[in-house]
Amino acid sequence: MIEFTFWDIVRNLLLAARWTVLLSLAAFVGGGVVGMVVLFFRIAKNKWSRRLASGYIALFQGTPLLMQLFLMFFGLPMLGLRIEPWTAAVLGLTFFASAYLAEIWRSGVDALPRGQWDAGASLGLHYLQELRLIILPQAFSITRAPTVGFLVQLIKSTALTSIIGFEELVRTSNAINNATFEPFKVYGLVALIFFIMCFPLTQYARTLERRAAAH
Question: Where in this chain does the record put each ABC transmembrane type-1 domain (predicted)?
Fold first, then answer.
């Protein structure tokens, strides 16, 4: 058994938490970009575009994230594509996030009255201008709370990337626990760090919900 002081454990866990934060941000931004593309297909006038987007969303919402990560990390090399744990983790979480964000934002678009589209048409705006200037700003405003709420879910989901070898908070905690045999202390600190990362966002999402309800 290796001797770790309490502060040694805390320091190593905080260093690992940086990768958890970085992975969460990369997946959230990447998922937002891909999710925007999926959203455009999801609300398109062409029925085949809508079906394609619906199938994409159903695929990533209807299968376990762990299986998606396994396919990224173990499946792609079978096709001749070498992939590192970081890349597999980012790609897996990005596609996972994009499906949920696209559906969250679509609910905001659907919540708008048809008159918003008609108003844009009466001003002579074409479809993309209506989306950019009228529809999407309002849809994003409506869905700010669930978007922040999903970010909390995404941060917690990064723990699964430890299974494919990405050195984030949970994988580092496993290594420390194997060296110290102090699971209550180690995993208790991990839970506390996740709580510190997620609780402010949860409170912010609730604040956004109250503001939306007040209007």
Answer: 17-205
